[in-house]
Write a structure and sequence with these properties.
The structure holds 2 protein chains of 2 kinds.
Chain A lengths: L1 H22 L7 H19 L3 E6 L5 E5 L5 H10 L6 E3 L2 H4 L7 E2 L10 E5 L5 H5 L7 E3 L6 E7 L2 E3 L4 E8 L6 E7 L2 E8 L5 E6 L5 E11 L2 E13 L5 E6 L4 H11 L4 E9 L2 E7 L11 H4 L4 E5 H6 L2 H14 L2 E5 L16 E3 L6 E2 L1 E3 L9 E2 L4 E3 L5 E7 L4 E8 L2 E6 L5 H5 L3 H15 L3 E2 L2 E6 L9 E7 L6 E4 L2 E4 L1 E2 L6 E6 L5 E6 L5 E6 L6 H18 L11 E6 L3 H21 L3
Parallel strand pairs in A: 2-3, 2-5, 3-4, 5-6, 8-14, 15-16, 15-18, 18-19, 19-27
Antiparallel strand pairs in A: 1-37, 7-9, 9-12, 10-11, 10-13, 13-14, 16-17, 20-24, 21-23, 22-25, 25-26, 26-27, 29-30, 30-34, 31-32, 31-35, 33-34, 35-36
Helix pairs in contact in A: 1-2, 2-13
Chain B lengths: L1 H42 L4 H16 L8 H11 L19 H12 L8 H27 L24 E9 L9 E3 L4 E4 L2 E9 L6 E5 L3 E4 L1 E2 L6 E8 L3 E7 L2 E2 L3 E6 L5 E6 L3 E4 L6 E9 L4 E12 L6 E8 L9 E9 L10 E10 L4 E3 L3 E5 L2 H5 L2 H5 L5 H19 L6 H25 L26 H8 L14 H22 L3 H21 L31 E4 L9 H10 L10 H20 L1 H15 L5 H14 L11 E2 L5 H13 L1
Parallel strand pairs in B: 3-11, 13-20
Antiparallel strand pairs in B: 1-2, 1-4, 4-8, 5-6, 5-9, 7-8, 9-10, 9-11, 12-14, 14-17, 15-16, 15-18, 18-19, 18-20
Helix pairs in contact in B: 1-2, 1-5, 8-9, 8-12, 9-11, 11-12, 13-14, 13-16, 14-15, 15-16
Classes of the chains: A alpha/beta, B alpha+beta.
Chain lengths: 597, 700
């Protein structure tokens, strides 16, 4: 105390002397400024020696406990511990962290084991499954910063042979590295992309060459460093053969070539061609239906697709026309109709496919398939038509001037494809088989009715990992109680109370890789269990958001806090040092530069 | 005494400055030389640029007096202008003492008393600096060029003859000596190696000499899993075995000692390549126009992997037209060709006149080359045509068709005829008359050109020498018409309306025609009718083309057919006509690669720790059979995959074996063709049906 007094007196004397000197200064400029600066300098000099204290209110925290989970940040945990008065006990649910002597964490199976303490969770948190076992124990969550790495990913898990595998995702590139993403199968890269740090999204594609099951690898590289390497399992299945009925009002090359193309794929093809008045030629390939058939609801329901042309349909009797219309509307029969030179007037689909004639200036039609951007060989344009797009239709083939040549639309449960290209056989003749194939594949895909799966299986989470529980979800229209068998285990399923067709059950996969499900009806399905560490960043992000949501609904109650108490705090002397230096600097600068002017 | 001192003084300055200038020149020369040598080393160009540079340097040294650039009087002039104490009398320093008058002597003595100090001429230092700078720059550029260069020679960057890869031998083998003797025609020496993986020339004889550690019962080589070659013992103790085989196909083989099999070794084959022919000239089709020398220059580059034994030009002359075309074949040789080398640059000049070609005839030729393996390669066919001027002059083609501009064509033809007549009559007429006639023809040509110019909307002045007279008459009714006023003062050269008369293509050709006419006129006016002829012919040919182009096809309009009576159609008796029915089975063709596709799928399912199921094993076995065929044809690509797959089949494999086998499968496969397929809909319990039903109810 005497020491403080001594400092205060000395600084006051110093100030008085300085103020006197300043007052007597000959140069009147900045006189008062200098006096004030001297005062500040002396005062801060004094306060450097005399501690300045004040009272503040503090909230007494309940005793805390720390729970560490994978991906925690050591620094932020240390900072948290330092802010506490007493070193809180550290727990962990991870055996790896428990094994680390540096952290000194005690292993627990769940946070519900900690009682009477405010629980602070660090790291990526817990999965939904773990959180469900915590008996609603309140906790505070300290999520780590943004997680670097793959953030979203999706691909078609089942690919029909000949179709593309599309892998789309986003990569969170926090360090702004130059990153390449590559898709490879058994070490052979099939597609890759160099990612711009500001454009995290990417799409990779390839046509799988195998059938059956295999897994691609999605590798993220920075130069030669592998940042991530994750499996992309897919199943390639062969397309089912189709059943097609062809109706033609006269024999022509278009139908002849189409028939040949369809039968070359082993499809069931029934073709009826009018060759004279009430005389028909009937072709039955791979079919068992009777020779003298008539169009009926039971016959048409056996087929996936009806291919015909407008004049043939218009020439049918009203009864048959109504039958076809009904089958399309309520049974989902797909039809492909080729326009004749008059367009397609007077039929049930005419309203959605109005036709316009081609401008005279165009000599040829240069068409392209919209979905794949394959360019088709040119056809003569003379007397040709194009379709005016109407709301609710989807153009399949356009020309280069974006006129629609093939359009598709929904009609009830069925799909109709309306085409103005009637001479596509010339492509086949000109050995442009690839384009012919693409064209008709696109058209038929546009019209085919979707096949009704008896049951469908899914998993939750989407990327199930070995040694972690996974839910198997089944949707089925079969009556009775379904059971799945995966590997040696039986899966007992629970019906959803509100959705009668939805069932789910939990399995604990013991090995990574493909797992078989044998459903009650004997069909075999496959699902993939990811090895530990696969898609780590995505799973971390999932855990963070799950734990965040849990912490939000289970926060330690504010009412439980004790009344705030008083505490004495001290002002940090470094602020006075800054003040002192500033005042002295002013005095010096004034004398050196400003006063001389 | 001091007189000679004066001369010495001037001479010393002269010498010193000359030396510095010479040094500056030498610096420049060194910079250029370093640059040239750098280019030579880096790009391996020929040495002639260096020789050329040396010549230029020699000329420059002579012209710019490198060795004595400063003259005495220049020194004197410089001394006078810079050294004030010489009092403008430096010239006296050069004078012989006897030639000076007393006053001069006095002055000379006076100026020599003080030491002569003059600053160096300012240009000298700059020259030196410039030279040194250039030299440093050249050195830096050349160093950079050589450092950045990937290789010093263009060939080293090619992959070196891939040596056999690392391999493991059977433990029983102590030493293996394999001797590869390439066939004689390759003129390559035999070589020996200690490794079993082979790279052999097609037809090479390979002999194996295997020394075993212990006496063994048999040593065999098994080729492509089929063919067996037994080695014979060459010593009694049965530790040295040998045999040989001629290699004509790629593949793989194994060594079997007693009953132990080695790993698979590859045999890669270097097939003899047929010679490559690159024709640099002439162009695929060339037309020799009137007035051009009637010969074709052939410039060919022939290369082969070993040597070329024969090369020739096979020429066919087609003469005549219509049904009377005659062909004559001839074989020409290259004069500078001597067989036995691997690379040739050959030239030949085909003299068309000597071969008896007439205007209008065509020469077809191709070049053939044969290598030491008796493989022959032919180039594409090249066509050289001699222009038929007689045909051009024919009027037939013009008279038949739509004749748009007959008047003008005849004129151009007339000009040609008259020019030729003039040339014939040259000996019989006076020089003045010849000149006058040539000039007249030039005038005709100009008039013709102007007439054509009209089609292009160019300025027309039919009368020669007439000035533009744009003074219009005043019309009372036009008074106040601003367009008229502007028009009368404007100097309009082109007629805008005419400019749109033709399409751009025609216009372009017309313009080219006018260009030829212009050149012909130039030659005629300068009394060189012989030189004018080619241009006249070219103009005529272009015009003829134009006239052919202007023919267009117009379809008949208004076809009248008898109207159909629908009631009468298809009324025939059809009761007895059968309705054809075709019933058949057609299966989709088997995908040959399906078993490989399946096997690739199986590879995704298996793991080294697990046993492979019998079904999967069967699929892999079938795929292995197919892969062995690929491995035999292309061992370099597929043999590692085949080896890996065999490891998998034998049940002792690593993850890497799956990877390598998978790579080989992927290389065998192409993507399957797209096929139509239905999308699968989830079983969602008639929910969609209910939606549809209710939606439609709303509409009602």
């Amino acid at each position: 105390m005497t020491e403080w007094l001594f400092i205060a007196v000395a600084c006051t004397i110093l100030f008085l002397w300085l103020a006197y000197r300043e007052y007597r200064r000959t140069n009147p400029l900045f006189r008062w400024g200098r006096i004030i600066a001297s005062l500040v300098a002396c005062a801060s000099l004094a306060l450097l020696g005399i501690p300045l204290r004040y009272e503040r209110k503090i909230v007494e925290e309940k005793a805390t406990a720390i729970v560490l989970t994978g991906g925690f940040n050591r620094d932020s945990v240390d900072r948290f511990i330092r802010a506490q008065q007493n070193r809180p006990p550290i727990y962990t649910t991870s055996d790896q962290i428990a094994a680390d002597p540096d952290m000194g964490a005690t292993f627990i199976t769940g946070v519900q084991e900690i009682t009477g303490k405010t629980i602070h969770v660090f790291g990526n948190g817990f999965s939904d499954f773990e959180l469900a076992t915590f008996n609603n124990t309140p906790l505070k969550y300290h999520p780590p910063g943004s997680v670097e790495g793959m953030r979203g990913i999706n691909w078609n898990r089942q690919v029909i042979a000949g179709n593309e595998l599309l892998v789309t995702g986003t990569y969170h590139n926090l360090k702004k590295l130059k990153v390449n993403v590559a898709l490879s199968l058994l070490g052979r890269t099939v597609d890759s992309i160099s990612l711009d740090p500001n454009q995290p999204g990417f799409t990779l594609k390839t046509k799988p060459v195998f059938t059956g099951r295999n897994q691609y690898q999605l590798t993220v590289l920075n130069g030669k460093d592998t940042l991530e390497n994750n499996p992309v399992p897919i199943e390639v299945v062969s397309p089912k053969p189709l059943r097609v009925i062809l109706l033609a009002s006269f024999p022509d090359f278009e139908h002849k070539f189409l028939k040949r193309w369809l039968t070359a794929r082993g499809y069931e093809v029934v073709a009826k061609t009018s060759i004279s008045k009430n005389k028909f030629q009937t072709d039955l390939v791979n079919s068992s239906i009777a020779t003298a058939f008539t169009l009926s609801a039971s016959l048409l329901s056996k087929f996936d697709l009806l291919i015909t042309d407008h004049s043939t349909l218009a020439g049918l009797n009203t009864q048959s026309q109504n039958l076809i219309q009904r089958m399309v509307f309520s049974d989902g029969l797909g039809i492909v109709v080729t326009a004749d030179s008059m367009g397609g007037r007077g039929m049930f689909y005419s309203g959605i496919f109005p036709t316009l004639s081609y401008p005279n200036t165009a000599a040829t039609i240069n068409a392209r398939i919209n979905s794949t951007d394959i360019k088709l060989p040119s056809l003569p344009a003379a007397g040709h038509l194009h379709i005016k797009p109407v709301a609710g239709t989807r153009a399949l083939v356009n020309d280069m001037a974006n006129r629609t040549l093939v359009n598709s639309g929904l009609f009830g449960k069925g799909k109709i494809v309306f085409s103005t290209l009637a001479n596509t056989y010339v492509w086949s003749l000109a050995e442009q088989q690839g384009e012919y194939n693409s064209f008709w594949t696109t058209i038929i895909n546009g019209a085919l009715r979707a096949s009704q799966a008896g049951e469908s299986w899914g998993t939750a989470p989407l990327l199930p990992v070995v040694n972690e529980p996974a839910k198997l979800c089944l949707r089925t229209d079969q009556p009775g109680i379904p059971t799945g068998v995966t590997g040696q285990q039986s899966v007992y399923l629970r019906q959803d109370p509100s959705l009668e067709y939805s069932w789910e059950g939990t399995v604990w996969p013991r090995t990574a890789g493909w797992q078989q499900i044998v459903a009650a009806d004997g069909t075999t399905r496959w699902w993939y269990v990811y090895p530990e560490g696969a898609w780590a960043s995505i799973r971390a992000a999932d855990k963070i958001s799950a734990t965040k949501a849990y912490a939000l609904s289970h926060s330690p109650s504010a009412l439980a806090r004790p009344a705030p108490s008083q505490e004495t705090a001290e002002v940090n002397p470094k602020y006075f040092l800054i003040l002192f230096l500033a005042a002295c600097s002013f005095l010096w600068i004034e004398k050196k530069f400003l006063a001389s002017k | 005494m001091h007189e000679s001192r004066g001369q010495e003084l001037v001479a010393s300055f002269q010498k010193r400055w000359s030396a510095k200038i010479l040094f500056a020149y030498l610096l420049l020369f060194a910079a250029a030389l370093i640059m040239m040598i750098g280019l030579f080393i880096r790009f391996g160009t020929s040495t002639w640029p260096i020789a050329l540079m040396l010549c230029i340097t020699a000329v420059a040294a002579k012209r710019h007096r490198w060795f004595n650039p400063v003259k005495q009087d220049e020194v004197v002039r410089y001394l006078n202008s810079t050294a004030g104490h010489l009092q403008e009398s430096a010239a006296l320093l050069l004078k012989a003492p006897g030639q000076m008058n007393p006053l001069e002597k006095l002055q000379a003595q006076k100026i020599l008393q003080a030491p002569v100090t003059v600053p160096e001429p300012p240009g000298l230092r700059k020259r030196l600096q410039f030279g040194a700078g250039l030299l440093i720059a050249a050195v830096v550029v050349v160093l950079l060029m050589l450092l950045v260069a990937p290789n010093q020679s263009g060939f080293a960057s090619l992959a070196p003859l891939a040596g056999p890869k690392a391999e493991t031998k059977l433990a029983a083998i102590r030493l293996a000596r394999i001797r590869i003797s390439p066939p004689a025609y390759t003129r390559k020496p035999a070589r020996e190696q200690g490794l079993f993986n082979l790279i052999a020339e097609d037809g090479a004889t390979v002999s194996w000499q295997v020394t075993t550690t212990l006496a063994v019962n048999s040593v065999e080589l098994i080729f492509n899993d089929k063919q067996v070659l037994r080695l014979k013992p060459s010593t009694k103790d049965q530790t040295e075995w040998q045999s040989h085989k001629k290699i004509t196909a790629a593949g793989f083989y194994q060594v079997r000692i007693n009953n132990t099999l080695s790993e698979l070794y590859s045999i890669e084959l270097r097939r003899d390549q047929p010679p490559a022919i690159i024709v640099r000239s002439p162009k695929p089709t060339s037309l020799i126009e009137y007035g051009q020398p009637s010969r074709a220059l052939v410039d060919v580059l022939l290369t082969d992997d070993y040597s070329i034994t024969a090369a020739a030009i096979h020429a066919t002359i087609a003469s005549g037209s219509g049904e009377a075309v005659k062909f004559k074949e001839q074989q020409l040789t290259f004069l500078n060709f001597t067989p036995g080398k691997a690379r040739y640059q050959l030239n030949s000049r085909i003299d068309l006149n000597q071969m008896g070609m007439q205007p209008g005839d065509e020469l077809y030729f191709y070049i053939s080359a044969r290598d030491s393996y008796e493989q022959e390669k032919r180039s594409d066919i090249f066509i050289v045509r001699l222009e038929d001027t007689a045909r051009l002059m024919e009027i037939e083609g013009l008279a038949n068709g739509v004749d748009l501009k007959p008047e003008f064509f005849r004129s151009q033809r007339q000009i040609i005829i008259e020019t030729e007549q003039l040339l014939k009559d040259r000996d019989t007429m006076s020089a003045a008359l010849f000149a006058a006639k040539s000039n007249d023809l030039g005038v005709d040509q100009k008039l013709l050109r102007l007439r054509y110019g009209k089609f292009l909307g160019e300025e027309t002045d039919n009368e020669i020498g007439e000035d533009h007279d744009h003074e219009g008459e005043e019309h009372a009714e036009e008074f106040g018409n601003t367009d008229k006023v502007v028009e009368s003062y404007a100097h309009k050269h082109d007629i805008a309306e005419d400019a749109t008369f033709f399409d751009p293509q025609t216009k372009k050709q017309l313009k080219a025609t006018l260009g030829e006419m212009w050149k012909a006129e130039l030659q005629l006016r300068t009394i060189k009718p012989r030189d004018a002829l080619p241009f006249e012919y070219r103009a005529l040919r272009l015009l003829k083309d134009l006239q052919q182009k202007s023919r267009s096809y117009v379809a008949k309009t208004g076809i009248k057919t008898t109207p159909l009576q629908p009631g009468k159609r298809l009324t025939g008796e059809l009761a007895d006509v059968n309705q054809p029915v075709y019933r058949g089975e057609r299966k989709a063709p088997e995908d040959n690669a399906l078993v490989v596709r399946k096997a690739l799928g199986v590879l995704g399912d298996i793991r080294p720790s697990q046993k492979i199921s019998a079904e999967n094993l069967g699929v892999l076995q079938q795929a292995a059979n197919r892969l062995s065929v690929f491995a035999a044809n292309k061992p370099a690509v597929f043999l590692p995959g085949y080896k890996a797959l065999r490891n998998v089949l034998e049940g002792r494999y690593q993850n890497n074996d799956i990877r390598v086998a998978g790579m080989a499968f992927q290389q065998m496969l192409t993507s399957p063709a797209e096929r139509p397929h239905a999308t699968e809909r989830a079983p969602n319990m008639r929910l969609g049906d209910r939606y549809l039903m209710n939606l439609n109810r709303k509409h009602d």
